[in-house]
Design goal:
Number of helices: 5
Shape: flat
Distance between the termini: 101 Å
Strand content: 35-45%
Radius of gyration: 24 Å
């Protein structure tokens, strides 16, 4: 019998993207991991996902409550950077935390307008073995007669992970050029993100710069979002929302829908605020207000 032999010539190795994952664990302390991720349309997002998932499963508990706070960047040549900042909590948040990194990379590599060059991925993950979340329970204003152009303090009561009440106050300013009915929404990232997608539905995101900008503006789980809106038509042009447009301008934009870069908006954003927390926020509350004219 003969042993099988395979002859060949080794060519140049694949191009690698340096990737750093710094893990700060409340159980095992701080560790830093260095990876080389192959530069490829399919394998770069996949290997980035596996790198994060393997670090967390190897050094953190596989089951039970856990929280992972991720911060970092993915540097894209000639386009800036993807900015990562979010918290993932629950019984098994490893998969969603890893997908958070792989998702925007997949979008970038699958764009058909121009090639993408990822220069470096650097992440810092703070891990704890407890569920860190808060639920929105009540919201109220310090006035019963809000006025156009006036200010008010919005109070938000949240229920913390151990049943404690967390109170946040947000000073808001009502638009001076608006009267009548206005909606005040206090929401988590899921509700605020759903409203964003509903407003920009039909608008195509094609270029890498649009993908990066949309991701960096996306809603974060560790934020409390406050929005003032009215029911006025608008449009989204090349991914950029334009609210409160006159009917004549809206008509011109809608006539150009064949390009796929224009979508209709049904509401106009009149003000927006956000509050950063070290917890994952869930829930939403909405107030329907009637603005009085200034005296």
């Amino acid at each position: 019998d003969r042993a099988t032999a395979i002859a060949g010539r080794l060519g140049p190795g694949p191009q690698l993207i340096p990737m750093t994952v710094a893990l700060n664990s409340d159980r095992l302390g701080a560790r830093t991991f260095e990876f080389g991720v192959v530069r490829d349309t399919t394998f770069t997002p996949l290997l980035a996902y596996l790198a994060v998932a393997n670090v967390l499963t190897a050094y953190e508990r596989a089951t039970g409550p856990a929280s992972f706070t991720i911060r970092g960047t993915a540097s894209i040549r000639s386009h800036g950077a993807l900015d990562f900042e979010d918290i993932f909590t629950g019984d098994q948040p490893v998969g969603t935390a890893a997908a958070y990194i792989a998702g925007p990379l997949t979008q970038l590599f699958k764009n058909t307008s121009e090639p993408i060059d990822v220069e470096r991925i650097a992440l810092t993950i703070d891990a704890s073995e407890e569920q860190r979340s808060a639920r929105i329970e009540r919201v109220w204003l310090d006035t019963t007669r809000p006025r156009a152009g006036g200010t008010a303090n919005l109070s938000v009561a949240l229920r913390g992970p151990k049943g404690e009440e967390i109170l946040k106050q947000v000073p808001i300013t009502f638009p001076a050029n608006t009267s009548g009915s206005i909606q005040l929404l206090v929401a988590d990232s899921a509700r605020a993100g759903a409203d964003d997608r509903r407003e920009v539905r039909g608008a195509e995101i094609q270029r890498p710069s649009q993908i990066i900008r949309t991701f960096n503006r996306s809603r974060r789980s560790n934020r409390l979002y406050v929005r003032l809106s009215t029911t006025e038509p608008g449009a989204v042009v090349s991914g950029e929302p334009m609210s409160g447009l006159p009917p004549s301008v809206l008509g011109v934009l809608e006539s150009d829908r064949s390009t796929g870069n224009v979508a209709t908006m049904r509401s106009a954003l009149r003000g927006e605020w956000e509050v950063s927390l070290d917890l994952s926020v869930t829930g939403s509350r909405q107030l329907s207000l009637s603005l009085d004219q200034p005296e």
